[in-house]
Amino acid sequence: MMVLTYSCMRRLCSLASQWCHQSRSECRRRLSIAAFLHSFKKRHYHIVSPGHVSPLRKVPESIPKPLYALNGSDDVVPREAEVKSAVQIAGMRRACALAASLLQFAGSYLQVGMTTDEVDRAVHEKCLARGAYPSPLLYKGYPKSICTSVNNVACHGIPDDRPLCDGDIVNVDITVFYEGFHGDTSATFLIGHVDEAGQKLVEVARRCRDAGVAVCRPGTNLRGIGKAISKCAEAEGCSVIPEFCGHGIGEYFHGPPDIIHIDYATTGKMRAGMTFTIEPIVCEGLPDFKILSDKWTAVSSDNSRSAQFEHTVLITPSGVEVLTL
Ligand SMILES: [Co+2]
């Protein structure tokens, strides 16, 4: 499906811009009162803008790298959603388990006063120590090993010299390339004392991701994922950014199918052996964003916060297995 304008760390064609526009104006109608009231609420968090990015980190020769990191080429992706063999599934399990353990490490490492650059360094080193390559590094020119998106940064925040503050919420997005396969996961963490609205937003984002996972089984329309997610978000007065989607994943970082996180007329069905990510960005305000001049950082247009959780899942013959637990 070649429809979305942006997906996780990848930009697709703009055929869908009209659809995104429609979905957004519908959302604006629905949320107008909530968003209007929201704009008057006192903010209990800092509005973040990009800081200084440290020099590129080194990766030893001995670490196997994806092709794009070796020669700057495009990632090689299948034309259609791939049904993986038992050998490929075993590879995905290993890569995803490593990504999950690094995310857990990052979550326990974070603290008030620590810069996101320090978190990036710690995860980078841990990743190399396990013999894996941090997939985001040099992916389409991305300069760091993880993404750290704080408060009003919706996604693809580049780790920098800004220290984390008491009350921040920060999404840490980790992907590793391990023994030939990518595993991708993210979570939003609370730093110190987060206000009630922020805590609720993070909880809703986690529930939305889990609602998407819960509908997965062979034969189900991929559309069911976005339907479940948007229902969950709307029930809490939250919105979902339509342009950032989940993706197929394997020996490639981002491939088909696109996993759309709102209810949108898509036709593909899930099949046993597919692996893809589910990673909705859930907003407390309207789902409007802009990309900053670094060409990566996506921030909300109204400075409101968003939260995101991500799993890589495998469709099994009887249902779904979360690989990044
Ligand atoms: Co992803």
TrEMBL record:
- Peptidase M24 domain segment(s): 91-316
Q: Which cofactor does it need?
A: Co(2+); Zn(2+); Mn(2+); Fe(2+)
* Metal-binding is among the record's keywords: yes
Reactions accelerated catalytically: Release of N-terminal amino acids, preferentially methionine, from peptides and arylamides
Task: Please give the superkingdom of this protein's source.
Answer: Eukaryota
Query: Could you say which EC number(s) this protein's record lists?
Result: 3.4.11.18
- Chain residues that bind a divalent metal cation 1: 173, 184, 310
**Keywords (A to Z) from UniProt:** Aminopeptidase, Hydrolase, Metal-binding, Protease
User: Which amino acids does the record list as binding substrate?
Assistant: 156, 254
Q: What's a BP term from Gene Ontology annotated to this protein? A: proteolysis
- Molecular function GO labels: initiator methionyl aminopeptidase activity; metal ion binding; metalloaminopeptidase activity
Q: Which note does the record give on the cofactor?
A: Binds 2 divalent metal cations per subunit. Has a high-affinity and a low affinity metal-binding site. The true nature of the physiological cofactor is under debate. The enzyme is active with cobalt, zinc, manganese or divalent iron ions. Most likely, methionine aminopeptidases function as mononuclear Fe(2+)-metalloproteases under physiological conditions, and the catalytically relevant metal-binding site has been assigned to the histidine-containing high-affinity site.
Q: Where does a divalent metal cation 2 bind?
A: 184, 247, 279, 310
Q: InterPro entries attached here?
A: Creatinase/aminopeptidase-like, Pept_M24, Pept_M24_MAP, Pept_M24A_MAP1
Assigned protein family: Belongs to the peptidase M24A family. Methionine aminopeptidase type 1 subfamily.
Identify the HAMAP family for this entry: MetAP_1
Task: Briefly state the protein's biological role.
Answer: Cotranslationally removes the N-terminal methionine from nascent proteins. The N-terminal methionine is often cleaved when the second residue in the primary sequence is small and uncharged (Met-Ala-, Cys, Gly, Pro, Ser, Thr, or Val).
Designated name of the protein:
Methionine aminopeptidase
Species of origin: Littorina saxatilis
